[in-house]
Amino acid sequence: MIPGILSCSFISCGETETDTARDKVVFYSAAKPGIWTSQAADHEPEVTVTRVDDRKILNVNIPFTRQKDKNHYVEVIVILDLERKELKKMSFQKGRASKGAKFDFPDNFNTPVYVVMKCNKHDMWEKLVDWSE
Q1: Nearest Cα to 75, choosing from 55, 89, 57?
Q2: C-alpha separations of 18 from 7, 11, 14, 23, 116 in Å
Q3: Is the dihedral angle over the CA atoms 133, 26, 75, 39 positive or is it negative?
Q4: Which of the chain's ends, N or C, has fewer CB atoms near its CB within 10 Å?
Q5: CA angle, residues 46, 75, 64, in degrees to nearest 5
Q6: Largest Cα span, the chain
Q7: Number of neighbours of residue 53 by Cβ within 10 angstroms
Q8: Domains of the chain by range and CATH?
Q9: Strands (E), 17-122
C-alpha cells in the first residue's frame, strides 16, 4: 500500500461487494465506445505523466470540458489499480466545468493504473496508463 492512497473500492467504498456487482460496471474507451461511438473522441481521458522532484504527477484532462457546458460535466475522476481497487479520487461539483485533475504518486510507483472519468451524461470512460505516457 502506498501512503496516502485510499484502499476502498470504486464501486462501493467501505462496503462489501460481490464480483458479480463489479462485473456489471461498464467502462467505455475510444477503442470500445459501445453506445457512445459519437462521444468517444471527447470523453476518453487525456493523460500525461510529469516528474517533480521525487514524485510522479498523473495529469488528466477530459476534452469535452473545454466546451464549458454547465449541463455536461465530469462528476469524478478515479485512479484504479489493475484489480479495479480505488487508489485516488477527485470529485467535482455539479455543473462545474473541470479542466482536469492531477494525482501525485511516488517516483518508484510503476504499476499500471486505470484512469476512469465519470461523465454525468455519457457513463464511465477509462484509459490504461503504463507510466511511459
Answers
A1: 89
A2: 16, 10, 13, 9, 20
A3: positive
A4: N
A5: 40
A6: 42
A7: 5
A8: 19-129 (2.60.40.730)
A9: 27-28, 46-52, 55-61, 74-80, 86-91, 101-106, 113-119
Summarised one tens digit per residue, pLDDT across range 60-101 is 988 877 777 778 888 899 999 999 999 999 988 876 656 689
Summarised one tens digit per residue, pLDDT across range 25-53 is 789 999 999 999 998 888 889 999 999 99
C-alpha cell, 5: 492512497
- Per-residue cell: 17: 461487494
Question: C-alpha cell of 60?
Answer: 488528466
Distance of CA 77 to the CA centre of its chain: 4
Residue given cell 518508484 in the structure block: 108
Q: What is the pLDDT at residue 69?
A: 75
Residue labelled with grid coordinates 476518453 = 44
> Cβ neighbours of residue 34 under 8 Å, at least 6 residues apart?
26, 28
Amino acid at residue number 55: R
Nearest Cα to Cα of residue 101 among 79, 84, 124? 79
